[in-house]
Design brief:
Blueprint: H1 2-15, H2 32-40, E1 43-49, E2 56-58, E3 63-65, H3 67-79, E4 82-88, H4 91-99, E5 105-109, E6 119-121, E7 126-128, E8 130-135, E9 153-156, H5 160-168, E10 174-177, H6 180-188, E11 194-198, H7 199-205, E12 214-219, E13 224-231, H8 235-247, H9 250-261, H10 272-332, E14 337-341, E15 347-350, H11 352-358, H12 379-391, E16 397-404, E17 410-422, E18 425-434, H13 436-458, E19 462-467, E20 476-480, H14 484-488, H15 492-495, H16 511-524, E21 528-535, E22 541-552, E23 558-566, H17 568-628, H18 633-660, H19 669-684, E24 688-691, H20 701-722, E25 727-734, E26 737-744, H21 759-770, E27 774-779, E28 785-792
Parallel strand pairs: 1-4, 9-10, 9-11, 24-25
Antiparallel strand pairs: 2-3, 5-13, 6-13, 7-13, 8-11, 8-12, 14-15, 14-18, 16-17, 17-18, 19-20, 19-23, 21-22, 22-23, 25-26, 26-28, 27-28
Helix pairs in contact: 17-18, 17-21, 19-20, 20-21
Signal peptide: 1-22
Domain Histidine kinase: 601-794
Transmembrane segments: 274-296
């Protein structure tokens, strides 16, 4: 009955009206760049293909309605933009419109490989399943794996669903239908046993009385994922659409799905036969549950009585065994030798650990005086210890000694005495701990410390250790070797003072980097490395290299063992080498600038001087033709040949001048990149896509020429080695940097670390360094190459 009431309440809740999507209280997570882009594009053109229930035009009201229309209106209200609706008869017309850039958005599209060339797709916002429809008879659900040739299935052909069914279910008998209506009509006329229809079209057709006797009996498992497509040249719009879609809650999308794609007739689970069987099953389960509950209660009462009786017996047994637990633990579990000794120093009880330590057989220690195990423990001393232990309130008495074994050998041991009264008798309990390994470890530790002191004293540098005594305590130097005297002029004792340490030696200009590197290593419990200047006792300056390795101890603490090297000579050589490299790079930049200026001068002279001479020569030839061509027929042919040679010379002069310095550079780097891409495409027949900003700031001539030469070298490498099908050039302005990216889909190569053997790559890197920029290459075998150059505008 409770289950039946729950089902009724759920059905009533489904019949309640659902609210329309509202964007009044939604705050979209847009960044400043996206908001600025929206401020410049307040009107967006939306293209839709008229197909109910996604988009349909009401001629009486003169307005569009449908699931996609409601979703786009919500997005427009959330983004505060105006939508201009454009209707198309089919998908081909919509794709033709986006090619001519007459459409900005298109909702309700499925992502396809061909569509990726035209659109940028959002994440799916609606899932439209492909349903299996049959005659409503209360039968079982349909499994396509079990259908054979005797069960024909109608499906719209051609379609992706039909291709999926052909490829997945080989034994399925598929019947072609022109559309979903024809497939359902074939089902009603008993030409087929089942029909496959998507939920959107089924929700539209289910409202017609002709198809009232049908029901959904299954799902093929291939849903249609609807997305919003946007123009590829507006990636900002795609990111804005994704952010807006994420702001819509799944509950709102489910309501949108239910409002427009809700089926009129029930699924298989809503048929009368199904609910009758389900009610009968619930009744049987209810009776079984009542019977099980009654049986469990009887068992519970029985178990409670047994538990009370067992608990009482356990309490009695624990009270009886309490007196024996200490003895049992001392004898069977303790690894410490335990002797119970009377006032006369004779042993009254010994555990197995004590017998094994002293080298006696079981029972061989009892009734022996302690002086046999410790020769210095004569009777007077024993009685004095007895009185102290009996009257002492400070706890057990302890001391170190060498016990004597049964074979006469010595046993290094810690002895502890504790007074005990047991059964109206008094004893001293002697605890014996074997410390042979501890003394051996102590001797090894002392020897190791001596060896460490010797090694540290002979290391050409300063050896130190940083320790943190507690996890929340500050670190401090626990050890500094005597090499500090030769390195900085201070003794180790002076540097170990609380207010000194290595920090007091750091040059004032390098203190910030020293503390930053040390704090970072201490906070993350990692290795510490720092290079900088330190000051010696006489005020001289030295370069030091500090390296310390972090070691994690068992108690969770960390120590840093390190050494300080004097690298003053190496640093001097390094600085001189860096200065030499900088001078060489400046010289190379100057030579490159002179070379480009010389190329420009030669190009102007070749173009102007040779151009003038060729122009005069062409005029003289024309004058000869006018004056003497009619006198000699053979002269006309020679004059024509001379004209052709002069024209070839004109073209050669232009090619030489262009190779030395393209005149297009005077129009700006953007125009020069587009011109070079057209020449590359004409020469290699490889498509070259170019993306250049409409407006660029003024760029220095040296940087424009350098960037253009880098582009020429990159395209030359693509033509020679890449075997690419397409090349993409992108010039972007990012803050104060100009970024040029050359991407191809060729064979790629392995980028070797360090110095490259390719003179082309070396030349490009040197040009970029001379311009104060950076170059990065990302390439993998079979995945193409991506070259990125960044040059500062300043």
């Amino acid at each position: 009955m409770i289950r039946l009431l729950s089902v009724c309440f759920f059905a009533c809740w489904l019949l309640l009206p659902t609210p329309v999507l509202s964007a009044t209280a939604v705050a979209l997570p847009l960044n400043e760049q996206q908001r600025a882009w929206l401020a410049e594009h307040r009107q967006l053109r939306v293209g839709v293909v008229l197909q109910a229930p996604y988009a349909q035009f009401d001629r009486r009201l003169q307005q569009l309605s449908g699931a996609n229309v409601e979703l786009m209106n919500w997005l427009a209200a959330a983004l505060q933009v105006e939508l201009v609706w454009q209707q198309y008869v089919d998908q081909a017309a919509l794709e033709a419109a986006v090619r001519t850039k007459h459409v900005d958005l298109a909702p309700g599209l499925s992502q396809t490989p061909a569509g990726l060339r035209l659109w940028l797709y959002s994440d799916p916002y609606m899932r439209v399943p492909q349903l299996i429809v049959g005659v409503r008879n209360g039968g079982a659900a349909v499994d396509l794996e079990q259908l054979g040739a005797q069960d024909p299935v109608a499906v719209r052909m051609p379609s992706a669903v039909a291709d999926y069914l052909h490829g997945t279910y080989v034994n399925l008998n598929l019947q072609a239908a022109a559309n979903e209506r024809e497939a359902l009509q074939s089902l009603l006329s008993q030409q087929v046993k089942y029909a496959v229809v998507d939920q959107a079209q089924l929700s539209r057709l289910s409202r017609e009385g002709e198809f009232a006797g049908l029901a959904v009996v299954g799902d093929i498992g291939l849903p249609q994922l609807l997305r919003i497509a946007s123009r590829r040249d507006w990636p900002e719009l795609s990111g804005i659409i994704d952010s807006a879609l994420r702001a819509i809650s799944p509950k709102q999308l489910d309501q949108l799905h239910g409002r427009w794609l809700q089926l009129k007739y029930p699924r298989l689970a809503e048929s009368p036969g199904f609910w009758q069987n389900l009610s009968l099953l619930f009744a049987v389960l209810l009776l079984m549950a009542l019977a099980g509950l009654f049986w469990l209660r009887r068992q519970l009462h029985t178990l409670e009585r047994s538990l009370l009786a067992a608990r009482h017996a356990i309490e009695l047994r624990e009270a009886a065994e309490e007196a024996l637990r200490l003895t049992q633990f001392s004898i069977d579990q303790s690894t410490v030798g335990i002797l119970w000794v009377n006032w006369d120093s004779h042993v009254r009880y010994a555990n197995r650990a004590a017998e094994q330590m002293l080298g006696y057989l079981p029972g061989g220690v009892v009734d022996r005086p302690l002086i046999e195990f410790e020769p210095s423990l004569h009777m007077d001393r024993w009685l004095a210890l007895w009185k102290r232990a009996r009257s002492s309130e400070e706890g057990p008495l302890s001391f170190e000694t060498n016990c004597r074994r049964a074979d006469g050998s010595a046993l290094p041991a810690d002895v502890s005495l504790s007074f005990l009264r047991f059964r109206q008798a008094e004893y001293l309990v002697v605890f014996i701990t074997d410390v042979t390994e501890r003394r051996r470890a102590l001797a090894a530790l002392q020897e190791s410390e001596a060896r460490l002191q010797g090694i540290a004293a002979n290391v050409p540098g300063l050896v130190f250790r940083l320790e943190r005594p507690r996890p929340d305590a500050p670190v401090d130097f626990a050890f500094i070797s005597e090499g500090s005297e030769s390195l900085v002029g201070y003794s180790a004792t002076t540097l170990l003072a609380a207010d000194r340490g290595l920090r007091s030696l750091v040059h004032v200009d390098d203190k910030a980097s020293y503390h930053h590197s040390q704090d970072l290593a201490l906070a993350s419990d990692s290795d510490w490395h720092w290079q900088g200047r330190i000051l010696t006792r006489d005020g001289s300056q030295r370069w030091a290299d500090i390296k310390a390795i972090a070691r994690h101890l068992q108690d969770g603490l960390v120590v840093w063992d390190g050494i300080v090297w004097d690298i003053s000579e190496n640093k001097r050589i390094e600085l001189e080498l860096a200065e030499s490299r900088a001078q060489l790079r400046e010289l190379s930049a100057h030579l490159e600038s002179v070379r480009e200026e010389e190329k420009a001068r030669i190009a102007r002279e070749v173009h102007d001087e040779l151009g003038q001479v060729l122009t005069v020569l062409k005029l003289e030839t024309s004058m000869c033709e006018l004056a003497y061509a009619e006198l000699d027929p053979g002269l006309q042919e020679r004059l024509n040949s001379m004209k052709r040679l002069i024209a070839n010379l004109f073209q050669l002069v232009r090619d030489v001048a262009t190779a030395l310095r393209p005149p297009i550079l005077d129009a700006g780097i953007g125009s020069a990149i587009e011109w070079q891409a057209q020449r590359f495409e004409a020469r290699t027949q490889i498509p070259c896509l170019v993306q250049v900003p409409e407006s660029l700031p003024a760029l220095a001539d040296a940087k424009a020429v350098g960037l253009f030469r880098i582009l020429q070298e990159a395209l030359t490498n693509v033509m020679r080695h890449a075997q690419a099908h397409t090349v993409e050039l992108r010039l972007t302005l990012e803050e104060d940097e100009l970024c040029l990216t050359v991407s191809d889909d060729g064979c790629g190569f392995v980028v070797a670390p360090g110095r490259s053997n390719s003179f082309g790559l070396v030349g490009m890197r040197e040009r970029v360094l001379m311009l104060g920029g950076s170059l990065s290459i990302d390439s993998r075998l079979g995945e193409g190459t991506n070259l990125s150059v960044r040059i500062p505008l300043d």
